[in-house]
Design a protein that fits this description.
170 residues, alpha+beta, four-stranded antiparallel beta sheet, two-stranded antiparallel sheet, 6 strands, flat
């Protein structure tokens, strides 16, 4: 008989390190893509609605340049917290890159996804971070794509959402 409790704890730590964004505590890009692809397959197989939303913080570089990276990190953490508070447990959240986040929404059509994006936009605008005796607020731009065929992949949905996101930014 051998005690493997510590070994199991170490394995759990390694899995968390490999799948979680260390700053925000949400799934990293690789883990997000893996989780989302499974949901895309299910949605395509059963012909269920599925939407993917991307959001990108507006003028994030300016926040970092003006207030420093510590404040930028705090903004990213607040975005992750806001996503957790505002979305369903069944939605999949991921940090895709620097200030880009993605949300996969199973059982969600485009009309509902737009409503969710509007609510998230309002929720993010309501977040205030205290910096040098000032209230820092920030905004985000959103892009949404929907599953249209059984051959769609998460990468394809991300590309479509990214195109919509940059149209929104412009």
């Amino acid at each position: 008989v051998r005690e493997i409790t510590q070994r199991k704890k170490n394995e759990e730590k390694l899995i968390a390190l490999a799948t979680t964004d260390p700053l925000t505590g949400i799934p990293n890009r690789r883990h997000y893509l893996s989780q989302s692809q499974e949901q895309v397959k299910i949605a395509a197989r059963y012909k269920k609605p599925f939407c993917l939303m991307m959001l990108d913080l507006d003028h994030f570089k300016q926040i970092n340049d003006t207030y420093g990276h510590d404040v930028g990190d705090q903004v990213l953490k607040e975005v992750a917290n806001c996503l957790h508070r505002s979305l369903r447990d069944t939605d999949i959240i991921g940090r895709i890159g620097g200030e880009e986040f993605a949300v996969s929404m199973p059982e969600t059509d485009m009309a509902i996804a737009k409503t969710v994006a509007d609510r998230l936009k309002d929720d993010l605008c309501a977040v205030k971070i205290e910096v040098f005796d000032q209230q820092l607020q920030f905004t985000a731009s959103f892009g949404i794509s929907k599953l249209t065929s059984q051959s769609d992949s998460v990468e394809m949905l991300l590309k479509k959402a990214d195109e919509a996101l940059y149209q929104a930014k412009n």
